[in-house]
Automatic annotation (TrEMBL):
Keywords assigned: Flavoprotein, FMN, Heme, Iron, Metal-binding, Mitochondrion, Oxidoreductase, Transit peptide, Transport
Protein name, per record: L-lactate dehydrogenase (cytochrome)
Residue ranges constituting the FMN hydroxy acid dehydrogenase domain according to the UniProt record: 97-460
Subunit composition and interactions: Homotetramer.
Principal cellular location given in the protein's record: mitochondrion
Amino acid sequence: MLSTREIHKHNNSHSCWVVVDGQAYDVTEFLDHHPGGANSILRYAGRDATAEYEPVHPPGTIEKHLSKDKHLGPVEPETQGDSASTPIVQYDSDKPIPLSTVQNLTEFETEAKKVLSKKAWVYFHSAADSLNSLDTNRRDWTRVNLRPRILRNVARVSMRCRLMGHDSSLPFFICPAAQARLGHPDGELCLARGAGRYNIPYCSSTYSSVAHIELAKALAAQEKGGALLWQLYVPTAQEGAKQLISEARRLGFKALVLTVDTPVIGKREEDDRYKAELDHAAGLTVERTTSTTGEAPILRGVHSSTLCWDDLSWIQKEWGNTGPVVLKGIQTAEDALLAHEAGIDGIYLSNHGGRQMDFAPSSLQTLLEIRRYYPHLLKEMEVYLDGGVMRGTDVIKALCLGARGVGLGRPFMYALSAYGTEGVCKAIQLLSDEIETTMRLLGVTSLEQLSEFYINTAALENGIVKRIDVGASGSIVSKL
């Protein structure tokens, strides 16, 4: 008879024994073939698994799947009764749960809130006014359903694609979001490392809390791939923009992502309230600035409030042939067409994560609007989007509608805040897993196979505008 001591020695993936109903079995070679995964056996390696095994397996299952030489014989009576029970899981409510137990992107927000300062939480979490745009971003993804096809060979799946000049391993990228060091001492370095390890693009903010040259070094250090894209807020002085573009070129950024939805900063009540609380505590009274000359500063004007279509020519000239120029913040079909007429390489549909204008359309609504009125743009331009994306199914839905790739911002900020670089990597893994699984369940093996026939947008179609701003000739009325 086998002893308790001998059974306990074989408690890992290299030598895994389990006891079931008084008999010991060597299941080492069976681990990778178990339908429930190797871990479902390894949890009970070197122990009695009877209580876990018997309720879910028909009699004779072990005999059916294991050869006789893996039947090791009876065990001593004291080993029996050492039955492994399911452990009671308890975590400290004030600390993030173990990263290995995080199962989806939504959980990163919950865990990040435990460790973020109020200042950081407010900055990452805030959105415009009544939060309608923020809520619409998430809700609209739930109004599009999938249409799976069956009986197709989906053993091999490829998620490779080309995003903003980069051959990416996955069809999503990390959105620009500033001040990541509010969440973690390494800040945006966590994002650059994750992008490098998994060969996806990272679009860094103009206001990165880590110097762009350090981001370039961090990406290069991974030696696995990835790409850096430069998000540009145009300053009030044109020379300032030229200097930023020059720096992006010098550091080897692959694309210029020009943000065009911030002539002023949106009214974010959560953020404004926090600042007002700080001012009150400091005894400060802040009044709106006025001018005796009639030239008062532009309310909430941080970036250029004069930026217009004509400025694209000098911006494109400064950028040269370095890579694609993409306009971020497109929210109507009309402006999508104007971008195309201006010779822009790509458009990035976004309402700034719901942070700019309340009751703005979701990027998904804008994409459907473009499909309805100017479907040719989806073939003649690169189209990207972000906003409320939390699942791999969301990415698939966007690609089915003609988007080239999808961006995610807040989930990665929450992931790095709670877990640093490894949190970013886990977020990428989770999303990759969901996309790959969804592709197989849809019956496709490459992103090129995705089309409108794999989705049902009927629930969202009624919300698309019935008319757009065109003249008698069918062209857009003006650029004003």
